[in-house]
Amino acid sequence: MKDNIIIRFEHVTKQYDNDPPVLNDVCFEIERGKFYTLLGPSGCGKTTILRLIAGFIGPSQGNIYFNGKIINHVPANKRQVNTVFQDYALFPHLNVFENVAFGLRIKKLKNAEITEKVKEALRFVNLKGYENREISEMSGGQRQRVAIVRAIVNEPEVLLLDEPLSALDLKLRTEMQYELRELQRRLGITFIFVTHDQEEALAMSDEIFVLNNGKIEQSGTPTDIYDEPINRFVANFIGESNIVSGKMIKDYVVEFAGKTFDCVDKGFNPNETVEIVIRPEDLEITPKDQGKLQVRIDSQLFRGVHYEIICYDQDGNEWLVHSTRKVKVGDEIGLHFDPEAIHVMRLGETEEEFDKRLENY
Amino acid sequence: MRNTSRNFYLIPYVLWIILFVVTPLFLVLYYSFFDIEGHFTLDNYKKFFTTVYLGMTLSSFWYAFLITLFTLIIAYPTAYLLTKTKHKQLWLLLIILPSWINLLLKAYAFLGIFGTYRAANSFLKMIGIGSKQLLFTDFSFIFVSVYIFLPFMILPIFNALNELNPSLVDAAHDLGGSSWTTFRRVIFPLTLDGVKSGCQVVFIPSLSLFMLTRLIAGNRVITLGTAIEQHFLVTQDWGMGSTIAVFLIIAMVIIMIVTGKKVVSKVL
Ligand SMILES: Nc1ncnc2c1ncn2[C@@H]1O[C@H](COP(=O)(O)OP(=O)(O)OP(=O)(O)O)[C@@H](O)[C@H]1O
Ligand SMILES: [Mg+2]
Question: The ABC transmembrane type-1 domain covers which part of the protein (chain B) (predicted)?
Fold first, then answer.
């Protein structure tokens, strides 16, 4: 076992009463010092994974390892993990200083040491001078920073963050994304960050776990997941995509929308039915006769940085195009794309099968 | 517009307050300045500061304190366990239910249970302690009072615990707090308002208990409540009765301020 692995889930299942399991046979490894993101729709089990790591609940089946030891029955207060809660969970009866000092007081540090550490930590997140404020007198962004400081002042090995940015407005949110990423680099500790916002996940993480229905659909770096989604769910959840069904004629040749195209995918059975993903920004608008595909423009929406154009080909497939050029609704145009822009997905393939297929070729 | 209509709805309430709260208060204050023959005097107030009445005040406070303390000690863990049960509202209802039964009925029931040849003594005999004088003792007085006041203490504490954000408890554990630390530094401080209102609704009425003192304690326990009753109904000395009542009211107001929520004390 590699010693840079700090947390390992081994076939972890979590079930309440006789309901269907909230987490179903989940396996993953977390490496020391990286920024991980759990991404998935509401109710998919993100918070449940964090609560299992923090120790507020235990697994129904399977084992959780921390630094190589099983911690299924270690209580939350004995784990080297701290949490930034979805609702911050700051203590309303204590001021900012005492909130941050809470963990240090439990460790029975000397008063002078506590004061120094708390002040230092507050300075770290630009909250110097706010020591004596009541929590109710802090803004949303400030509370969020207090919640982060309260956790990191205890120098945990792993910091768990449960949608800490979801309550903030867009501008502050973007700002905090930078701050958090920067903070993680400076501290060098492992962050496990939960969000259901895919842009946030792509922008911040070293590694993303895409969850759905209590299962990990795919894990990998942001570019891996964006460029090579394993199935329709991931492709749809991470960014916008055009997904059409097609047929893999042979290695490097795929057929869809009634035509054959060169591609860079391989390892399928001849004439296997597949799904094709092309990202809207990889489609380029050309005059009708110069495009690989001919489509008719159905609608156009200005999105600030680009136009969002929806077109249909003669088979009735919908194509979403992002373009900086304005077009005329109703016009017939051509669409051009490179062979690399085509991503082919096998139906119902799991992550292991996907990895194996890539390895074998 | 909204204001005037709201004022309109307030009329019955204001009338009620004037008729049954403000007027009696002034009447009590007024009577406290007259002696038994109806002459104006300050003697009642002088008399209150004699050892007899001060002693009575002291014992009233002492018993009220004991009753409140024991009620709290029983009520807090009960309320805590209640919030952990599955059908908590049902259990709560079962605990609140006895408080709907008339106080006198419950007192008489205890007369039955605690009587020399009754259930409680048979039980003591059975476990080998032997028959004891239970009725007309401090013990029985406090026991029955605690029983009667228990629901009034459990309810506000239960509500406070129920409203406590569970992620605060998680946060305390997360930051290294053991169960006891979490209770002492987070759960208890955050349910203090519930404890305070519980203490208020137990302490204040127990200051002026009089039926129980007669029935259960056999008039061996004399509280301010008993004294007021005696003066009004037996000695007919309304002046002295009112004077005691004035002091009782002052004591209650002070307790309300001390145990009240922040808002209340700010307003006052
Ligand atoms: N104590 C519990 N008892 C029963 N079911 C629960 C309990 N806690 C969570 N669940 C269920 O587990 C599932 C996953 O919950 P979880 O909180 O992990 O979702 P999430 O991915 O964090 O969602 P969100 O993005 O909305 O926060 C949900 O269907 C939820 O109803
Ligand atoms: Mg959640």
Answer: 57-259
Q: How many CB atoms lie within 10 A of CB B158?
A: 27
Tell me which of B169, B170, B173, B174 to substitute to probe the interface with A (most A C-beta atoms closer than 10 Å): B174
* Interface residues of chain B, partner chain A, Cβ below 8 Å: 165, 167-168, 170-178, 181, 185-186, 189-190
Q: Say whether B170 and A54 touch across the interface (CB within 8 A).
A: yes
ipTM, two decimals, is 0.83
Count up the domains in chain A and report the number.
Answer: 3
> H or E element: which one contains A278?
strand A272-278
CATH number assigned to the domain comprising residue A269: 2.40.50
Q: How far apart are CA A73 and CA A262, in angstroms?
A: 54
Mutation to test the B interface, candidates A47, A74, A78, A83, most B Cβ within 10 Å: A83
Its domain, for residue B120, covers 47-259
pTM for this structure?
0.82
Partner-chain contact A106 B181, CB within 8 Å: yes
Expressed as residue numbers, the domain containing A273 is 241-280+337-360
How far, in Å, CA of B133 to CA of B135, rounded?
Answer: 6
Contacts of B261 in chain A (CB under 8 A): none
CATH code at B197?
A: 1.10.3720.10
Examine residue B33 and state whether it is found in any structural domain, yes or no: no
For A154, B125, B132, B145, the CA distances from B117, given in Å and listed in that order, are 64, 10, 10, 22
Q: B77 C-alpha vs ligand 2 centroid, how far in Å?
A: 31
Domain end marker among A195, A227, A259: A227
Domain assignment present for residue A57? The answer is yes
Q: How far does chain B reach from its first CA to its final CA, in angstroms? A: 30
- Of A61, A65, A83, the C-alpha closest to A74 is A65
CATH number at residue A166: 3.40.50.300
**Do A126 and A250 share a domain, yes or no?**
no
**Residue A82 sits in the same domain as residue A157:** yes
**Same domain membership, residue A287 and residue A264:** no
- Amino acid making up residue A112: A
Chain A: closest CA distance from residue B30 (Å): 45
Q: Is B171 inside any structural domain?
A: yes
Distance (Å) from CA A37 to ligand 1 centroid: 17
Structural domain includes residue B193: yes
Query: Considering only CB atoms, which residues of chain A are within 8 Å of chain B?
Result: 51, 54-56, 75-77, 81-83, 85-87, 89-93, 102-103, 106-107, 150-151, 154
Question: Could you tell me if the CB of A46 is within 6 A of ligand 1?
Answer: yes
User: Which pLDDT tens digit goes with each residue over A232-283?
Assistant: 899 988 888 899 999 999 989 999 988 999 999 888 888 899 999 999 999 9
